[in-house]
Amino acid sequence: MEKCVFCAGLDHKSIDCFIYWNSNVRRKRISSQKRCLSCLEPKCALSHSTCPRQNVECSLCSSASRKYFHHLFLCNFYSIEKPTANGS
Question: Which of 20, 24, 30, 67 could form a disulfide with 6 if both were Cys (CB 3.0 to 4.6 A apart)?
Answer without folding.
Answer: 20
